[in-house]
């Protein structure tokens, strides 16, 4: 009889262990489902956000036209500066007294429309 009691106790322990394993399996499957949903949320966002090629092309065209407009404005500014009459003696004096390159002195003088005093004040500030 003791053997029969041991068998029933072993069967009860096995049933209890099986119930615990079933409970753990349910918890594990819930965790796996939650992880799967979290992963789907991360990957779904990439699919929702597709690039529109026409928008990209229009943006690139706008950038190109803006760059071309800036280039044309710079060329026009250089033409205006080249048309300014300056005294070569003023360039020489500014370059020597402020110990700078003659090109910088000439450019600054042209930007100030040949006014040597304004150019020097600009360079000294």
Automatic annotation (TrEMBL):
Pfam families (UniProt xref): UBA_HYPK
Coiled coil: none
Domain Nascent polypeptide-associated complex subunit alpha-like UBA: 84-124
GO BP term, pick one: protein stabilization
Region (Disordered): 24-53
UniProt biased composition (Basic and acidic residues): 38-52
Listed PANTHER family: HUNTINGTIN-INTERACTING PROTEIN K, HUNTINGTIN-INTERACTING PROTEIN K FAMILY MEMBER
Name of the featured protein: Nascent polypeptide-associated complex subunit alpha-like UBA domain-containing protein
Source organism per UniProt: Oryza punctata
């Amino acid at each position: 009889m003791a053997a029969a009691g041991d068998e029933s106790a072993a069967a009860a322990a096995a049933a209890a262990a099986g119930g615990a394993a079933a409970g753990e399996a349910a918890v594990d499957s819930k965790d796996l489902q939650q992880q799967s949903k979290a992963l789907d949320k991360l990957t779904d966002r990439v699919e929702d956000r597709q690039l529109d090629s026409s928008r990209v092309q229009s943006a690139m065209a706008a950038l190109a036209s803006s760059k071309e407009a800036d280039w044309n404005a710079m060329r026009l500014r250089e033409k205006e500066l080249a048309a300014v009459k300056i005294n070569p003696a003023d360039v020489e004096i500014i370059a020597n007294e402020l110990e700078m390159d003659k090109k910088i002195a000439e450019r600054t003088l042209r930007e100030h429309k040949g006014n040597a005093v304004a150019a020097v004040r600009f360079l000294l500030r």
